[in-house]
Write a structure and sequence with these properties.
319 residues, alpha/beta, Rossmann fold, 2 domains, five-stranded parallel sheet, 12 helices, 12 strands
């Protein structure tokens, strides 16, 4: 029996990624949509798991046990940029190709970062709730013009975010593990080290990949470098922030606000301390979920599946 099934574990793929489904079927592949939602575990496909040759993966974990369950799996195409949920070393040992879809939703994620920044800076969720409850308390704010916005990470999303912020007459600083002088010059960014970004910025927006080097880059020590009224925006990964230290800083008045689309553990539980801390604005990991970006990501992931199963080198291979 030849394995020719593609298992899709991404919600809304059936309605928003029709071109991806068509591409897979046009190449003789059987498609099974297993729309299990965010934070789900792998669900067994209908029929023999040995039939599965490719997976379009969402945010579920792909460790050794998950890969072992699919003996003829050849490719995992991550629907999105991040791939920390995939054990790359195990994939290499099993001869499974892993790909991702960089840049396809960069503008969408950057827009969300801007939205969160303003929501926090102007306390929009809090004022919305108060006004609807009958309060007419007027609050004084500081304007963004003349302030310093710091970026941690100057990849595709970071650059899109910087471009969007250019129109607000603010100064831009950035820390990136590998300096990007051309991009920085084009975007009017001053590249500095991590500590200087944190010390000088009124707003800090996180755009780094999550790995062993960046895990908890925002921690008790680095939080103490920041201004007491600084706003932190996170549309990258929850693992970048040591949430317990952040909660302590917020409750002690050492940080102004935290606006995030991501959590260390997803989905966030109702009793998560972040959800109960004043100064926190949050959304459920939706920054990259747009009608415009989904079809592009879906088609890119499908093309990677087709390429690998056709014994071609796929674009955006990471393992």
């Amino acid at each position: 029996m030849t394995a020719n099934k593609v298992l899709i574990l991404v919600e809304s793929y059936d309605t928003l990624c029709e071109a991806g489904i068509k591409l897979l079927k046009d190449h003789g592949l059987n498609v099974e949509l297993n729309l299990c939602g965010r934070g789900c575990k792998q669900k067994k496909p209908t029929g023999d798991m040995a039939e599965v040759a490719g997976v379009i993966a969402g945010l579920e974990s792909w460790d050794k046990a998950a890969m072992d369950a699919y003996p003829n799996l050849k490719v995992i195409a991550r629907f999105g940029i991040g791939y920390e949920t995939v054990d790359l070393e195990e994939a290499k040992r099993q001869g499974i190709v892993v790909t991702n879809c960089p840049a396809k939703n960069a503008a969408a994620v950057a827009e969300h970062a801007v939205a969160l920044l303003f929501a926090a800076a102007r306390q929009i969720p809090c004022l919305d709730e108060r006004t609807k409850n009958g309060s007419w308390e007027r609050v004084m704010f500081r304007e963004l013009a003349g302030k310093t916005v710091g970026l941690l990470g100057l990849g595709n999303v970071g650059q899109c975010f910087a471009k969007m912020m250019q129109g607000f007459d603010c100064s831009l600083l950035a820390y990136n593990r590998t300096p990007k002088p051309e991009a920085a010059k084009e975007l009017g960014i001053t590249q500095v080290d991590l500590e200087e970004v944190l010390r000088r910025s009124d707003y800090v927006s996180l755009h780094l990949a999550a790995d062993d080097q960046t895990k908890h880059i925002i921690n008790e020590k680095t939080l103490r470098l920041m201004k007491k009224d600084a706003v932190i925006v996170n549309v990258a990964r929850g693992a970048l922030v040591q949430e317990a230290a952040l909660v302590d800083a917020l409750r002690a008045g050492r940080i102004g606000a935290y606006a995030t689309d991501v959590f260390e553990n997803e989905p966030a539980e109702k009793d998560d301390p972040l959800l109960k801390t004043r100064g926190v604005i949050c959304t459920p990991h939706v920054a990259g979920v747009t009608y415009e970006s989904y079809p592009l990501i879906g088609l890119t992931a499908a093309q990677a599946i087709v390429d690998v199963l056709s014994k071609k080198e796929p674009a955006n291979r990471i393992a």
